[in-house]
Amino acid sequence: MITTFLTLTFIFLIFLWIVSWINYYNKLDNRLGSSIWRWSYDYPVLGKRDISFLDDKKFVILRRKKNKIITYMYLIVFLGFLVLMSFVSQILLIIQN
């Protein structure tokens, strides 16, 4: 149970670190927006013209880095959910006995 709690704490610290990176990328360019949960689109959207790699190379590279970090964030959230469920089940087993 202690190792699960330490793992959960470690995952939470990684989550905070990833969120700080997302906020850092958001502040580099205003076109990225301020959301930490939403990917920036890198594909054609009806009614909107996307900025291609040829239009603004630095922005597209920055957007792809941010999208990759957001994917890592979702992976950490999912992993944290699994570890949290393990932790709760261990607590419930202790309460039951």
Could you characterize what this model shows?
With 97 residues, this protein is mostly helical. The protein has one domain. The chain contains two helices and no strands. Helix 1 (2-28) packs antiparallel against helix 2. The radius of gyration is 18 Å and the shape is elongated. The mean pLDDT is 87.
Secondary structure layout plus pairing:
Blueprint: H1 2-28, H2 57-96
Overall pLDDT score: 87
Count every helix, treating DSSP H or I runs of 4 or more residues as helices.
Answer: 2
Kindly state the number of beta strands: 0
Summarize the main sheet.
none
Helix content: 55-70%
Summary of the model, kept short:
69% of the residues lie in helices and 0% in strands. With 97 residues, it is mostly helical.
Question: What attributes does this structure have?
Answer:
97 residues; mainly alpha; 69% helix
